[in-house]
């Protein structure tokens, strides 16, 4: 298939779950590369406890070291104001004029809430959306969201997707339901282990752990905790 994937997030911090997620989607879609794009100023999250953008970028670069098709994209750090996905992807399109639309990855919860995002229902104009489920009833979430947001894109009755499914949207654009293997790790879990002084081995790369410990005082102040062993 080729093309470029985009995995956005606060990455506070990035961990092996993020990296493996990007690898799995890249292989499943046959992408040339995936850009991991840290959010500079989250519009819907408190900034308290969020590592500085430059440090999150440094951690990301350490995390993807040695994986040539994973790149770190700092576009949102170059834009002022809240980091709205609509604005970011339009800027991406401006900088990559003439290139195919990127594949923008998101989870089921975010996909189901697109109508609350800034111009969220217009996103298929600037990117192919890829919903990566966590399991459970996420196939129903995929279909129900498409029926609600883009009426006429699906027949009245159709099976809930168990495997990969791509839907061409009424009005243009497409969404793909893409189950891939996942590592059940969260940034919240990482921060909690840091606060309690637990080991982060095997949850992050050795290179990333070295960066965290090199900035331990700053990280601990940001996450309101002491440095782990």
From TrEMBL:
One of its GO terms (biological process) is NAD+ biosynthetic process. Keywords: ATP-binding, NAD, Nucleotide-binding, Nucleotidyltransferase, Pyridine nucleotide biosynthesis, Transferase. Residues 6-193 form the Cytidyltransferase-like domain. Pfam families: CTP_transf_like. One of its GO terms (molecular function) is nicotinate-nucleotide adenylyltransferase activity. Pathway: Cofactor biosynthesis; NAD(+) biosynthesis; deamido-NAD(+) from nicotinate D-ribonucleotide: step 1/1. It catalyses: nicotinate beta-D-ribonucleotide + ATP + H(+) = deamido-NAD(+) + diphosphate. InterPro entries: Cyt_trans-like, NadD/NMNAT, Rossmann-like_a/b/a_fold. Its EC number is 2.7.7.18. It is an enzyme of class 2 (transferase). Catalyzes the reversible adenylation of nicotinate mononucleotide (NaMN) to nicotinic acid adenine dinucleotide (NaAD). Belongs to the NadD family. This is Probable nicotinate-nucleotide adenylyltransferase. The lineage of its organism: Bacteria, Pseudomonadati, Thermodesulfobacteriota, Desulfovibrionia, Desulfovibrionales. The gene is nadD.
């Amino acid at each position: 298939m080729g093309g470029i994937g985009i995995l956005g997030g606060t990455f506070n911090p990035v961990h092996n779950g993020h990296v493996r997620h990007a690898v799995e989607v890249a292989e499943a879609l046959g992408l040339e590369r995936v850009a991991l794009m840290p959010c500079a100023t989250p519009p819907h999250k408190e900034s308290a406890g969020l590592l500085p953008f430059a440090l999150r970028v440094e951690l990301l670069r350490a995390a993807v070291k040695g994986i040539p098709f994973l790149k770190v994209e700092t576009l949102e750090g170059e834009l002022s104001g809240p980091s709205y996905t609509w604005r970011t992807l339009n800027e991406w399109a401006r900088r990559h004029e003439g290139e195919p639309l990127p594949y923008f990855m998101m989870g089921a919860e975010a996909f189901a809430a697109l109508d609350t995002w800034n111009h969220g229902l217009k996103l298929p104009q600037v990117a192919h959306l890829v919903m990566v489920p966590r399991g459970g009833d996420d196939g129903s979430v995929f279909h129900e969201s498409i029926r609600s947001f883009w009426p006429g894109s699906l027949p009245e009755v159709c099976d809930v997707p168990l495997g990969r499914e791509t839907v061409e949207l009424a009005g243009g654009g497409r969404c793909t339901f893409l189950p891939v293997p996942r590592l059940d790790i969260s940034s919240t879990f990482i921060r909690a282990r840091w606060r309690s002084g637990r080991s982060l081995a095997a949850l992050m790369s050795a290179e990333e752990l070295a960066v965290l410990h090199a900035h331990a005082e700053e990280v601990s102040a940001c996450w309101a905790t002491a440095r782990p062993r």
